[in-house]
TrEMBL record:
Signal peptide per UniProt: none
The protein's enzyme class: transferase
Keyword Transferase: yes
Gene3D superfamilies: 1.10.287.130, 2.10.70.100, 3.30.450.40, Histidine kinase-like ATPase, C-terminal domain, PAS domain
Protein name, per record: histidine kinase
Keyword match Lipid metabolism: no
């Protein structure tokens, strides 16, 4: 070790110089003086040499520690990190060995000397960690001891359905002891990744059962689940119920919580409690992070091993069932290697077809040669199409020659296994002799054919009706007042009700349709009017007479009842949107009735459901056992394989719809009822990030002799797209299109009367000043309403008529713009309007009234949204192929989130505007429509520095 000391002292200057040069390239030393880079390095190297020469006495160790602390504190003051400081000691450890590469071997330090040197540098780096983090060597040893204890207590596996309190409680108690806490509780998330339930706790008192907490809620545990760092709650006593949701913390004053987050996903939360109110130091938080990270790994490994054990058990049970079923079944099982072409047949081939295993042949050619000639081409073409496509199953019914040459009618089914690229690599199937069953069913073949034909016709008619409904206008009516008087209606209402217009318009609904009294229509309308909530109903059943004195018949309608309020649209009532789907419902009912009488064709109906992308189920209500086909499992988010009871499947139904589904099943299964079940509900797939889907379920309960339900079968259809389309149509369809135009026409006549009256009053000489001002205010308000109605009528024309009509004529645009600005100036004499027009006349073919409307709308908008002491400028100039009209104001900029939709209807500027300047938010929409009708474009720019500029480009037609 003396050689190390001698070498350091002999090369001290070289070491210091090389260290300074190398350290200068480190980011942490940028901007430091040379003395600050070197710091205490010469004295430190003398101290290290002394320890290596004379041994580690307390005095020398104290000197070395003092020099290290002075250097580390300097690095702390200049903002260096812990890694920066340890990098410098690592650099020093590389520089010293580099110097003795050229030294003679006999003068190089030995292993003992190198060990002494590197030990001093490692202890210096430990000193860095202690000073930067306050985490000492004793703390690390204590941490390692507790981690080893947790490792010894870790369970090898955790069964998914077993109570985890037993194996996990010792681990939680070890964390409590390590942190010197009062107690702790461990929560794990359930399958949906949202609710957290307690799985282990400490303490003598048994906590109440049934607790859970929302990981996205406002409680302390919910906040911990969303935080990357440990959270502290200094005062846990007396918490509000919302904050202590899920907690069982008797006697805990301070709470410390941290989430379990393996693989970047929430596993759960560990909450530790302390009896006394106390601050939690950083060392404790860091220790908790280490313990929780280790605990996460233990639980992740144990849960994975538990799932693996369960999967192995299920696989073993499945293989056992398959082996026993193969031995007991009468089917012939075959296994086809699609890559090599080899086919293996089970021993049942001898019993069913008479062929010994060695007689069946090793390829598919033998099987194809035994198929009846009339069926051969169809079967061969179908199975190869299935293999070459993407489907997972193939099935066909055909005739097959046995060993004696007799015809055997078989049902052959196969499952196709595919590789990662979707290519079929293996096919396993079973051939069943259905000759006897076919002969028994042959008499019903015609009935089955008729059922299939009826189903096809019903589906075709359903598709045709859907197409017609999408293309044809819906029926509209506005029902005014508490009596629901039909104030406005289109011809479609009269067609749907089978009434002449004079029997519908201006009459209450129950007077126009007296036969629907007692069918719930009046109660439904009263509920919509009283609550103010819209009603959306599909296939609403009503009995009505299509002709006066005619017979009552069943009719089905899709209905939307939207409440209207005076504050929003100027009238009180209900907007009714209706379309008739009677033929669709009757077609489906006929198809379902035929299907119910043909129980022997369940397998074929199941294949038909697959063809129309519908899923099916078959449930035993008494036991809860259920069979779900693959399509319904995929729609509901159920596991692709394995047994699943009705109760387990209901967990996949959205929690807000679960009660509705259960209530519908309870009503359908009520003894003496119809047994018909229908419900539309949402499902939440268990995989995170996937959207919620809507399912339309329809089913039927079959009852035994005692009146109890014995079987529940039904189908499900994914109606997500329909729901989305209906929601979009409900929000905007009639309010923006039909209603605006109707209201606008109704308001024009009274406003015209108001303007005529005010004009007559203003001509009188006996009006005093006060009366004159009142009449002028009325006139201004009426004129503003007229402008609003004009905008509404233009909007209706643009939306329903495909655009605004323009009547172009040859005109001089300079004069038109000048005249428009002068007219606006008269109405606002206090404002400054600046006009910049070209010296030469600009002529072209435009609609003068519509162009003037564009200019006045843009000027009114600029005046409204700019300070009164700022000017508004109008600029007209030519450009290649057209003209450019710009309107600029210096007001506050348009909000960035409003800019993309500024030209959309029903958009207004900033809130808080003068009520006298309010509009319906259609001005800029109409401006854009007029400009587009001229083949032009309009743009807007708005910044705090440059103000707001609307730019209109018109082609010179």
């Amino acid at each position: 070790m003396k050689l190390v000391a001698d070498f350091i002292e002999a090369n001290l200057d070289v070491l210091v110089r090389r260290f300074a040069e190398a350290a200068r390239r480190l980011e942490s030393t940028q901007g430091l003086k040379a003395s600050e880079v070197i710091s205490t390095l010469p004295e430190y190297l003398h101290a290290v040499a002394g320890i290596c020469r004379h041994g580690a006495t307390p005095e020398r160790l104290e000197t070395r520690a003092r020099l290290e602390e002075a250097h580390i504190n300097l690095r702390l003051r200049v903002g260096a990190t812990q890694e920066d400081a340890t990098d410098e000691y690592t650099l020093l450890g590389r520089l010293i060995p580099q110097l003795w590469q050229d030294v003679q071997p006999e003068r190089r330090p030995g292993a003992a000397g190198l060990q002494c040197l590197f030990q001093q540098l490692e202890e210096a780096m430990d000193h860095v960690v202690v000073l930067f983090s306050g985490y000492s060597f004793e703390d690390r040893q204590r941490e390692k001891r507790f981690l080893r204890q947790m490792d010894a207590l870790a369970p090898r596996w955790l069964e998914p359905r077993a109570d985890p309190q037993g194996p996990l409680k010792p681990l939680v108690e070890r964390v409590v002891r390590a942190l010197e806490a009062t107690g702790a509780e461990l929560f794990l998330v359930d399958a949906d990744g949202r609710r957290m339930t307690p799985v282990a706790h400490t303490g003598p008192l048994e906590p109440p059962a049934g607790r859970s907490v929302d990981s996205q809620g406002p409680s302390f545990l919910g906040r911990v689940a969303r935080s990357e760092e440990p959270l502290v709650l200094a005062q846990a006593r007396g918490l509000e119920d919302s904050l202590r949701e899920g907690l069982h913390a008797p006697g805990w004053s301070t709470l410390l919580g941290l989430r379990l987050w393996p693989h970047g996903e929430l596993m759960g939360v560990l909450c530790v409690g302390f009896a006394e109110a106390r601050p939690v130091p950083p060392q404790t938080k860091r220790f908790l992070e280490t313990l929780v990270e280790y605990l996460s790994g233990i639980l992740d490994r144990a849960l994975l091993m538990g799932q693996l054990r369960e999967a192995n058990a299920r696989l073993e049970a499945s293989e056992t069932r398959y082996r026993l079923a193969s031995q007991a079944a009468a089917d012939t099982v075959w296994d086809w290697n699609l890559l090599t072409g080899e086919v293996a047949w089970s021993g049942e081939t001898r019993r069913m077809l008479g062929f010994a295993p060695e007689e069946t042949g090793t390829t598919a050619d033998w099987w194809v040669s035994r198929i009846h000639p009339e069926d051969r081409e169809r079967v061969e073409r179908g199975i190869h199409a299935a293999i070459g496509g993407t489907q997972a199953r193939w099935q066909d019914e055909y005739r097959f020659f046995d060993r004696q040459g007799d015809v055997v009618r078989v049902l052959d089914s196969g499952v196709i296994l595919r590789d990662a690229q979707g290519r079929g690599v293996r096919m396993v199937g079973a051939m069943q002799d259905i000759t006897s069953r076919w002969q028994a069913e042959n008499g019903h073949e015609q009935l089955l054919h008729e059922a299939q034909l009826a189903r096809l016709q019903a589906d075709t008619k359903l598709s045709q009706l859907h197409a017609l409904l999408r293309q044809a206008p819906v029926a509209l009516a506005i029902l005014r007042g508490p009596a629901h008087v039909v104030a406005l209606a289109n011809d479609r209402i009269c067609q749907l009700w089978g009434r002449p217009a004079e029997q519908v318009l201006g009459r209450p609904v129950l007077e126009a349709l007296p036969e629907v009294e007692g069918q719930g229509i009046r109660e439904l309308l009263d509920g919509v009017r009283a609550t103010g909530r819209p009603y959306v109903g599909y296939e609403l059943h009503v009995r009505l007479a299509r002709a006066p004195g005619g017979v009552m018949e069943d009719a089905y309608f899709n209905l939307i009842y939207q409440p209207l309020s005076t504050a929003e649209v100027g009238m009180e009532g209900i907007l009714a949107v209706a379309s008739e789907v009677t033929e669709v419902v009757r077609a489906r009912q006929r198809a379902e009735g035929l299907a119910a009488t043909l129980q022997v064709s369940e397998e074929r109906l199941r294949l038909a459901l697959d063809a129309v992308d519908m899923g099916s189920w078959d449930i035993e209500p008494a036991t809860g056992r259920a069979t779900w086909d693959a399509r319904f499992r995929a729609m509901l988010g159920l596991p692709a394989e394995g047994e699943l009871t009705l109760e387990e499947a209901m967990r996949f139904v959205h929690e807000e719809d679960r009660h509705q589904v259960e209530q519908a099943m309870a009503e359908a299964s009520r003894p003496g009822g119809s047994g018909e079940y229908a419900s539309e509900f949402r499902v939440r797939p268990p995989q995170g990030g996937q959207p919620v889907r809507w399912i339309s379920g329809r089913g039927h309960f079959h009852f035994g002799p005692d009146g109890r339900p014995v079987r529940f079968v039904g189908t499900g259809l994914d109606v997500t797209e329909r729901k989305l389309a209906e929601e979009a149509a409900r929000q905007r369809a009639e309010f923006e299109q039909y209603l605006v135009g109707i209201v606008s026409h109704d308001l024009r006549n009274p406003l015209s009367a108001i303007l005529l009256g005010t004009t007559s009053l203003l001509r009188r000489d006996d009006l005093n000043e006060r009366a004159m001002k009142a009449v002028l205010r009325i006139q201004a308000a009426a004129e503003r309403a007229v402008r609003m109605i004009r905008d509404l009528l233009d909007f209706t024309q643009a939306r329903l008529g495909g655009g605004l009509p323009v009547h172009c004529q040859d005109l001089e645009l300079n004069a038109l713009v000048r005249q428009g600005v002068e007219e606006v100036q008269i109405t606002v004499p206090e404002r400054v309007l600046q006009t910049s027009l070209p010296a030469t006349a600009i002529r072209g073919c435009w609609d003068p009234d519509r162009v003037t409307q564009v200019l006045t709308n843009l000027l009114g908008n600029a005046l409204k949204y700019s300070p009164e002491d700022t000017p508004v400028s109008v600029r007209l100039r030519e450009e290649p192929g057209g003209v450019l009209l710009e309107v600029h104001n210096a007001g506050a900029p348009i909000a960035p989130d409003l800019l993309p939709r500024i030209f959309q209807p029903m958009q207004r500027g900033e809130p808080g505007m003068d009520p006298a300047t309010r509009s319906v938010g259609l001005g800029l929409y109409i401006v854009r429509t007029i400009v587009q009708a001229h083949g032009g474009t309009i743009d807007v720019t708005s910044t705090p520095e440059a103000g707001t500029t609307f730019t209109v480009r018109l082609a010179r037609n």
